Give the backbone structure.
Amino acid sequence: MSKELFDVLRLISSFIVTIPLLLSVYKFKSLNRIQVKLVYLLLGVLTVEVISNILWYKKINNMPLYHFFTVIHFLLIVNIYKMALSQIFSKYFFTILSIGFAIFAVINTVFLQGLMTFNSNTTTLLGALVIFFSLGYFYALLKEVKYSALETNPMFWINSGFLIYFSSNLILFFMNNTLFKGITTASYILWGLHAVINIVLTIFYTIAIWVKPQENTSKNSDF
């Protein structure tokens, strides 16, 4: 993959998140609680992408930004799942998990992977936990007695996007610091594929914002 193609994919991947955000403004009055929580996540992602790209063009290391955002990203995702998985896990489970994740992230930054290094350990743990949440959500759906139209359920689309994104990128996150020392053709290819998968995730976000939940789903947005 050429540097030019990689730069195009990176820019699209960074700012395509504006599409579901603009859509959320248009549909704001009809959004349910899960969709509003997704908007918070999208705002966080857009903020980080803007700052990250500014640092990138100024040739300033943007890794410290991701050390902080990985924790915020996890908390925003937990904020979505603690509602969707409330019938499986208590709120204390998510509180303890969030505190434990934050502590691990600090330990990793201080002792293992400094601020100027990609925090692959923390990012890999985040991915593994989100995959666990995703599978837990699908398990909860299978246990549902009543029929529900999944195509109008925002959480179904969010969860599917998460599962595709994090399962596809888990190995890349874990192996990045080991496999790629500096900018190489292989790193352009793999991070270019990461950009494509991120675009796919954003498409799922957009669908999640676009769909109109059924009345029972709006009132009880767990499933």
User: Anything to note?
Assistant: The chain has one domain: 3-219. The longest helix spans residues 154-179.
